[in-house]
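To: structure desk
From: M.T.
Subject: fold request, one chain
Message: Could you run this one when you get a chance? Sequence is below, nothing fancy, just the single chain.
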Amino acid sequence: MKVVKILVVVLAVALQFAACGGKPKTRLTLEEAKGPGRDRELYRQGVDACRKGSFDECRILLNTMINTYSDSPMIKMAKLSIADSYYLQGGTKSMAQAEVEYRDWIQFFPDDRLTCDTMMKIAEIHLRQVIAADRDTTHAKLAERQLRDMLRRCPDAESKQKAEPLMNKVQEILAMHELKVARFYFVIRGSAQAAQLRTEEILNKYPNFSLFDEALYLHAKAMELQEDTVTASQNLAQLVASYPHSPYVDKARDTLKKWGQPVPQPDPVKVAEPGPEGKGLPSRVLGLVVGPHIDTSSKGVIIDRELKTDEIVARAQELSGAKAVGPVTPGATTTSNSPDARPRRATEAGQDVEVKPGAPADPKAQSSSSKDKKSKDKDKKKKDSGTPGLRNP
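Reply: Done. Structure tokens follow.
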């Protein structure tokens, strides 16, 4: 029994030492965090953790840097890297949090050179969640709104080159959604007014829609059922002139002739253009199963997991305006919470007192000052003694 007790005690002690032997990498004391160049080292460690997929560790390290070095020039990049970590992590919740972080960053740094790229990243968050045209279009509408806002705030050629192709794709999805709903109301429900409203949405908002000719024809048929042949004739005339390769051209001509309306000649430029290529059955089935394909970047604004950690850090330093070398520690250009560095106040006045450094005290100056003070006190006592009604102390 004694041997068993001894073994149990030894095992318990060994387990205790084993449990206390390791130290979490992400738990840093204030003394460990503050040190020469620790702000950039923390940023580097956070980026490296993000590249390896340790997103929680990445955010702990970056937040430690932000809270410890409030005046570091790398804070702007650290906040943006936290948003990138949520974007790279993926998933519905992480994407929602990434959008919040990106929008906060734009609000704090609206004039930064990376603002346009950050706005593009918000649009990509919604584009990655767009599904088929016959499903919910919430993310498609949010992406369209974000891209339009980006083109308004960033009119340069580079931003247009990035945003316009994505805008065309997302508008294609939204227009297709409206056309499918219009078909349903016109063919299944027999509601000409509902089909009119849906097709007018396409005609007014999406002029580059690939099936714009079908929207024109369906709108004309809806107006015909409502006995508005004037509007219907205008739609059919536009169809004949601008879409000579459309499968609805012959029907449009016949309808115009039946109504006694002039049939316009097709635009020669449009005639010279090749006709639209129809999609085969396999691609249509794949589109219904998988949904629309929109190319979005798998990279963050700052963090690119295909690059090395040092390359990302060097780019972040360049964009933040920080020097490539040299530590950034609390000193002459930074603030500190130590008691000696806090602003001092006067004892009675309650106002801030500016403490100016000066030379060491001179004993002769101090003695002359004390003599002047004593002489002033004597003059005051003589004056008080000569004043009626006052008693000498």
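Reply (cont.): Residues 157-189 form the longest helix (33 residues). Let me know if you need anything else for the meeting.
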